[in-house]
């Protein structure tokens, strides 16, 4: 496999893991929202590390907001960003 394909697969697997972590707060009623206070900034930062440039920064802000607002952390922002980057935008690798 090429390095671009390796990065593509790595970003998909990490994205699925990070989306699962974000949704895991629903498993712990009452405490989950408190955990989101810590997870939201970390998730936003991770998004900016995975996807560079202005699009990564915008995705980081969206991820932070999505994770910090109670009730909407079921949106799989990492997976959506992966789909946007590798399927919808037409880029073959970053």
How is this structure best described in words?
It is a single chain. The protein is an all-alpha fold and 94 residues long. The chain has 4 helices and no strands. The protein has one domain. The mean pLDDT is 89. It is elongated.
Features of the shown structure:
94 residues; mainly alpha
Secondary-structure topology with pairs:
Blueprint: H1 3-23, H2 32-50, H3 53-68, H4 77-88
State the gist of this model.
The chain is mostly helical and 94 residues long.
Give the tally of structural domains.
1
Average pLDDT across residues? Answer: 89
The biggest sheet amounts to:
none
Q: Quickly count the helices.
A: 4
Q: Report the order of strands and helices.
A: HHHH
What is the CA-CA span between the terminal residues? 15 Å
């Amino acid at each position: 496999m090429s390095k671009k394909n390796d990065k593509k697969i790595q970003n998909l697997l990490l994205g699925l893991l990070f989306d699962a972590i974000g949704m895991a707060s629903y498993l712990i009623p009452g405490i989950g929202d408190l955990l989101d206070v810590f997870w939201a900034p970390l998730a936003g930062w991770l998004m900016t590390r995975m996807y560079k440039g202005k699009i990564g920064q915008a995705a980081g802000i969206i991820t932070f907001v999505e994770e910090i607002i109670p009730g909407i952390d079921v949106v799989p922002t990492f997976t959506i960003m992966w789909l946007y980057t590798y399927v919808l935008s037409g880029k073959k690798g970053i």
